[in-house]
Design brief:
Number of helices: 0
Strand order of the largest sheet: 1-2-3-4-5
Order of helices and strands: EEEEE
Length: 155
C-alpha cells in the first residue's frame, strides 16, 4: 500500500549583530520554524490518517565581552516557544464497529471501554500486537503540546 506523504516546512531567521565597543559584542537572533505534515498511512497497517502542524519560535540574545586576550565573559539568554498539534481526520477514521470493509452489516468490534466517557472518537480501533502479524494501532491522537523554556547560562 502506498500513498503520498506531503510535507511543508519553512524556517526563517533574523540576525542582528552589534559591536558595542571594540571588546563588546551583542547578538540577537529570531528563529521561526513552521511545519505541516500529512501521514495518510499512519500506523502499522495504514488504517488511519494523521496531520502534524506546529510553529516553533526561538529568540537567543548573546553578549560577549573580551576583558583580556585570555579572558572572555559571555552571557546567553534564550526564550523558546514550541507548539505541536496532531489532529485526526475524524470523518475518515477507521470505525471499529463497522469492520475492515467499513460498511454497515459487516463484522466489527463492539465492546465497551473501561472508561467510556470523554472519548473524542468513541469508535476508535484498539491497539493490537500479535506474533507473526504487523499489528494494528488506533493511535493516541488527537494530541497537542505547548512548551515555553528559558535558559540563562553564563560562561
Amino acid at each position: 500500500m502506498t500513498a503520498l506523504h506531503p510535507q511543508n516546512q519553512r524556517k526563517d531567521t533574523i540576525a542582528v549583530d552589534i559591536n558595542l565597543t571594540s571588546k563588546q559584542r551583542l547578538q540577537f537572533r529570531r528563529n521561526y520554524y513552521a511545519f505541516w505534515e500529512y501521514q495518510p498511512l499512519d500506523g502499522a497497517v495504514g488504517k488511519r490518517q494523521s496531520t502534524s502542524t506546529g510553529p516553533t519560535r526561538r529568540t537567543p540574545v548573546d553578549y560577549v565581552w573580551t576583558l583580556r586576550p585570555t579572558l572572555v565573559n559571555e552571557t546567553l539568554a534564550t526564550f523558546s516557544l514550541d507548539r505541536v498539534y496532531i489532529p485526526v481526520d475524524a470523518a475518515h477514521f477507521l470505525d471499529r464497529t463497522k469492520g475492515a470493509v467499513q460498511g454497515p452489516g459487516y463484522f466489527g468490534l463492539n465492546y465497551p471501554y473501561i472508561f467510556p466517557t470523554g472519548k473524542l472518537l468513541p469508535n476508535r480501533i484498539p491497539t493490537v500486537n500479535t506474533a507473526n502479524f504487523s499489528g494494528l494501532s488506533g493511535g493516541p491522537y488527537p494530541s497537542h503540546s505547548r512548551d515555553r523554556s528559558m535558559t540563562y547560562p553564563t560562561v
